[in-house]
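Journal club prep — side note

Before the paper discussion, L.F. wants everyone to see what a predicted structure for a comparable chain looks like in token form. Sequence:
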Amino acid sequence: KDKISIGDSITLDFSGKIKEHIPLEKGKNAFVITGKYAGFHGKIKSREGKKVEIHINDVHIILNQSQVIAL
């Protein structure tokens, strides 16, 4: 089984069992949930500690991992 870390996303079925695990890591798609860029989505370019760099519409932004959901 995959180890689930803080910041990762999971999908549950109706019985509450984990159906899918999506780690918050380089190359994954991400959706911004708070802040100036809320509602935007892009690709994760890097993650260092609690900071995540995302490429959104030709712009690179650095956000706290609590502002981002892995898709």
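L.F.'s comment for the group: The chain has a mean pLDDT of 93. Keep this in mind when we get to the figures.
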